[in-house]
Amino acid sequence: MALLFNPNVVTLPIVGSQDRFPVRRVYCVGRNYLEHIREMKEGDERDPPFFFQKPTDSVTSEGTDISYPPQTDDLQFEVELVVAIGSSATGVPVERALDVVFGYGVGVDLTRRDRQRESFAKGLPWEIGKSFDQSAPCGPIHPVAAIGHRLAGAISLSLNGAERQRGDLAQMIWNPPEIISNLSASYRLEPGDLIMTGTPAGVGPLVPGDKLTASIEGLAPFSFSIGPKVS
């Protein structure tokens, strides 16, 4: 039996290797930094974070200009630590959760904020605000074997050379082991899964021509530009 067409396999570079990391699923954590919850004025600070997904082909790597998406006048940036899963995990306890991590990267959760807010106000899913083409640009994956785990350290984003976001990974409400354990209670995690772990305060709008650089202490910075608006 022949395939009707050849599916596109999305991959990310692996630092120090000629191999590439094939992406299976993209999970995202909502409201995982206290100051970001306060700046958005949404939800109760005592609520636990929740999860949503982006399509696999929303992932783009460095060197790809991101088109300003249609159906929005308020595209915004959110810098995040990305956890790359390297082993299967179902119901993994917190104390063993880091065993399934292959590595870490720097990502940006691009958001159509106006569409997200409309969905939130109507009690509708967030897909139109979060899960669009090129909405998950991501830098290369750094293997745990080379850098260890990323549980603390500065996280920041600069826009056109001016810093807009700064925080520390230690400020997460849920840390990576807790996120992995929680997710694996509801989904079977598999090699190739990416988890975007939430953003610190300072999110803001983008326009065509903007250049962003996302950084996390101990990882290579990741840069990309916003291209013309899709008509």
Cα(first) to Cα(last) distance is: 39 Å
- For this structure, the quaternary state is single chain
Taken from the alpha-carbon principal axes, the silhouette is: globular
Q: How many β strands by DSSP? A: 18
CATH superfamily: Fumarylacetoacetase-like, C-terminal domain
Keywords:
5 helices, metal-binding, six-stranded mixed β-sheet, alpha+beta, 18 strands, 231 residues
How would you summarize this macromolecular structure in one to three sentences?
It is built from five helices and 18 strands.
Describe it.
16% of the residues lie in helices and 33% in strands. It has 231 residues and is an alpha+beta fold. It has a single domain (20-225), classed as Fumarylacetoacetate hydrolase, domain 2. The strands form five sheets. It has a six-stranded mixed beta sheet with strand order 4-3-15-8-9-12. A five-stranded mixed beta sheet has the order 6-18-17-13-14, with no helix packed on it. Strands 10-7-16 form a three-stranded antiparallel beta sheet. It starts with 10 loop residues before the first strand and ends with a strand. The model has no long low-confidence stretch (mean pLDDT 92).
